[in-house]
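Data deposition worksheet. Section B asks for the primary sequence of the deposited chain exactly as it was used as input, without tags or linkers unless they were present during the calculation. Section C holds the resulting structure in token form. Section D is free text for depositor observations; keep each observation to a single sentence. Incomplete worksheets are returned to the depositor.
Section A, Depositor: J.P.
Section B:
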Amino acid sequence: MKIIIVGDGKVGLAITAQLTSEGHDLIIIDSNPDVLQRSMELYDVNVISGNGASLPVLRAAGAETADLLIAATSSDEVNMLSCIMASRIGTHNTIARIRNPEYHEQMNEMRQELGLSMPINPELSAAGEVYNTLQFPSFLHRDSFAKGRVEIVELKIAEHSKLQSIPLKRLYKILSVKVLICAVERGCEAIIPNGEFVLEAGDRIHVTADTKHLAKLVQDFELKSEKVEHTFIIGGSRIAYYLARMLTASGISVKIVEKDLKRCEELAAILPEVMVIHGDGSDQRLLLEEGIQDTDALVTLTSMDEENIFVSLYGAHLGVPHIITKVNQMEYASIVEEVGIESALSPKMLCATQVARYVRAMANTTGGSVLTMHEIVGGKVNALEFVTTEKTKYLDQKLMDIPIKKNILLACIFRKGKTIIPQGSNCLRKGDTVIVVTVSDFLLVDLNDIFEG
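Section C:
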């Protein structure tokens, strides 16, 4: 596809990295020649220096014939104007990064006037990700498929777990619900396991399950299932605002520590149910005085990765059960996990993933077939969602008789409201939603790509 990206900051660069890896033809517009030079060198894309809301600049980028324009500058107003201009000269699909909560509240009324296909809000998406994690805090990560009816959840095999030393083919005799372990991270290795694979303590496993079975899964895996009742947030960012609203609506008490007095006053006015504390979130004495050692969950959301990591480590030292750390530099995510903090959050990567899903959905209407893709095991494994059509090979044949390529696993079939964990006697039928797991080196564009020959 021909895609124009307006804005080459952190979010724009993350989107560029994602979409170039999937083979799209990108044109980047930005007013800063230095960042454009960086993108040219890193991703070999076409660039135009200028204002992305200007008609001459958009025409120079070929917006009349572009399949999609993504406006991701730091200014909501520039992003909206860029989408309006592009839509008027012929761009059929536009995505705007819109962060201001006031604009978000009225987005449904504004979308048609803006010619906007989809708004993206990295802070709101990040808050939603944290909220979902805290609903089932024993899971390190959750990814949804089949319109939220199926999930792949990440968890860690604890010492002395009843699943230790058990081949996966015997899993059904131990668990009360049908699930499939579709990927395992052991040290630096990513594994697509077969039935003979044996789990070890410390393995981070990715489990496919029906969403309604998640609570039972917690019990079967002997995970701690204490409900989060108190949450401590460091940093009064927009993410903190959105997250605090979600948590308090669920009856969870929230404390926010923010060093900027004016921001504290703003948050106190718009979040009356939240205790807003003016102070330095890295001040250990302040944190102890406010009871961080007694909280159920700690979420570090300042603008500095180093401060987030430091405070998270301090929370882990005090025994806080659940810790989520925001990082802007993705290389820090692996460091966070190595030092024992198991959940890292990157708003820009969430945003890039959200855009990529929309692009795949566009491709699906023009001949492709990937509906959703999530990267798991630190990006080493992909979980992809397809829908079978009359063009899908081997329909109505038993899976045991179908030649499926190595390192590809059918993780789930969703059919007419029913979740099926595939076995050899199952088959694919027209209209099925199918979740496929494979190593990231394999490029799957269509469901037929999983078959030999």
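Section D:
The chain has a mean pLDDT of 89.
The longest helix spans residues 347-365.
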